Amino acid sequence: MTNRESMLEKLADLDTQHAVAVAGGGQKYVDRHHARGKLAARERIELLVDPGSAFLELSPLAGWGSDFTIGASLVTGIGVVEGVECMISANDPTVKGGASNPWTVKKAFRAAQIAEENNLPTISLVESGGADLPTQKEIFIPGGRLFRDLTRSSARKQPTIALVFGNSTAGGAYVPGMSDYTVFVRGGAKVFLGGPPLVKMATGEESDDESLGGAEMHARVSGLADYLAEDEHDAIRIGRRIVARLNRRRTAHLGLDSGLGGTARPAAPLVEQRAQRACRNQGLAFAEPDADPDGLLDLIPADLKEPFDPREVIVRIVDGASADNGRPFDEFKPLYGTSLVTGWAEIHGRPIGILANAQGVLFSEEAQKATQFIQLANQSDTPLLFLHNTTGYMVGKDYEQGGIIKHGAQMINAVSNSTVPHLSVIMGASYGAGNYGMNGRAFDPRFLFTWPSAKSAVMGPAQLAGVLEIVAQQSAESKGEVFDAEGFKGIKDYVEASVEEQSLPYFLSGMLYDDGVIDPRDTRTVLAICLSVIANAPIRGTDRFGVFRT
């Protein structure tokens, strides 16, 4: 099987997984929802964002591999509304009435973090029955952070807007309660701390939905509703007008077609014309990549043990040569630390510093090179892109004596304390401390995406299983016992299979360890959107790092 055939097979499976997420609770519940005159979550988003603009959906596979529906009954992502990039969060009422499960909460936390770091307004499209009660113990205590985040967003002058289409009960009532602006749909919105049954049980009082928490009551009596919409389309229209009046800096955007995961290859000439026109409006100019991004499917080996040249990735995602920049990629220190490629480029006219693994292993030279490069990016206030394909830092007596630990620590120090925005894409392997040095999830990149070819774990499955076998053998020998290699083979095979499964991109994405699994051909588009988003907040490097051990 060729590299292309292998990747296309993975992408077909990825499309299947995304289709499950889009299906929500299934056709039966989607039809029932539509029969009530209601729009689905993604239909609401499509009407909310500017026509022809991109919607970068985040964490669409949240909860994959768990007992919960893929997507975690919540759609989150970044879209352009009235020219303003916004974080959009929409409950999916076709999945258990939009009830929140533990993965919903984690997905909402990630969305709030992105909104905070990138100075984005938040628009909540609300229709949720509250917490999934059987898992309340995993939701109730941490879930309070959702409300804390809303109020802190307001304090930072990052506006919060709630469009309430249906139920927003119990703790969920505080979503509109703590938002700066609220829009309630007449006859649809129901917002109360306790519904009629709970009120009856707690106080003996007889009540109905409308008098207790209906849209008209909140618009006329309680004052919780700032705007009363006639229907869902009207609520979305009002929401767009609220954003238009926020007096925010309007970000010219790349009018790219939207799609699941925020990606749709911009093949149509009209789409590319929009992108170039938007960049010119921002004073940006760019040329298309010098090599066709479609070639990425041929580049990535089916077996990650086979190396590939990351320069062939870079030339397919960065702006091509033009009269303005002369060269698509200016490599830094090309003859030193050659298993890590570093250099400067632009993506859709925006500057970026790139660190990309070449031969997999990070030696002392690569770590020192990366440390210097990260410092230079901070001096010039340039965002950084990390392209992962590493098995980690080199081990062995000579390398330990040569200082691999302290040199790796220098690199991790630089990554940890760098204050320019970081973007990460896991192309292939991302093992061990190499994941840390290359700015993995624990180091809070602004955005992190994986390719279907990616794997991430403490080490490769075969290596990990082999280490366990060696440890077991040494343990047996220390007790004077004979090691049963044949008997241990079953354990070894089980461990290797488990680690293999847990290192795959769907598993990692389901755990919210990335922001989505993307088609490699869409990497340039996704990164362009991310670079536009991070420009909403000041980009300032630091000259303050921890102690660099020498």
Automatic annotation (TrEMBL):
Q: Name one GO molecular function term.
A: transferase activity
Source lineage: Bacteria, Bacillati, Actinomycetota, Actinomycetes, Propionibacteriales
Q: Which InterPro entries match?
A: AcCoA_carboxyl_beta (IPR034733), ClpP/crotonase-like_dom_sf (IPR029045), COA_CT_C (IPR011763), COA_CT_N (IPR011762), MCCB/AccD1-like (IPR045190)
Q: What protein is this chain from?
A: Acetyl-CoA carboxylase carboxyltransferase subunit
Q: Which Pfam families match?
A: Carboxyl_trans
Q: Where is the CoA carboxyltransferase N-terminal domain?
A: 7-258
Q: Which UniProt keywords apply?
A: Transferase
Give the matching PROSITE patterns: COA_CT_CTER (PS50989), COA_CT_NTER (PS50980)
- Domain CoA carboxyltransferase C-terminal: where? 292-541
